[in-house]
């Protein structure tokens, strides 16, 4: 039983350290930049400001929106 608590404590400590690292780094949590775009209610892409592919994703979403509106 002590081994179970020791294992649980180790994983809890590891998660705590990782979460502090994310908070201290100041980066946004995000999924894969290669995944499908997430759009808001107006159709604009929602991306993290620190994403290195942000401008490319915005351009691709604008092109897709413009081609979708064509007859």
SSE order, as H and E? HH
Overall number of domains:
1
As a percent range, the share of helical residues equals 40-55%
- Calculate the terminal CA-CA distance, rounded to whole Å: 67 Å
Q: Name the average pLDDT.
A: 78
Portion in strands = under 5%
Low-confidence stretches: none
* Major sheet size, sense and barrel closure: none
Number of strands: 0
Global structural class: mainly alpha
Shape: elongated
Radius of gyration: 20 Å
Specify the number of helices: 2
Descriptive overview:
There is one protein chain. With 71 residues, the chain is mostly helical. It has one domain. Helix content is 55%, strand content 0%. The chain has helices at 2-25, 54-68.
Key attributes of the depicted protein:
mainly alpha, 71 residues, 2 helices
Layout of helices and strands, plus pairs?
Blueprint: H1 2-25, H2 54-68
Short summary:
This protein has 71 residues and is mostly helical.
């Amino acid at each position: 039983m002590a081994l179970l608590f020791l294992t649980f404590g180790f994983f809890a400590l590891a998660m705590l350290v990782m979460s502090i690292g994310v908070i201290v780094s100041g980066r946004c949590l995000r999924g894969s930049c290669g995944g499908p775009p997430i759009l808001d209610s107006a159709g604009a892409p929602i991306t993290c400001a620190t994403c290195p592919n942000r401008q490319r994703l915005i351009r691709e979403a604008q092109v897709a929106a413009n081609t979708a509106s064509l007859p």
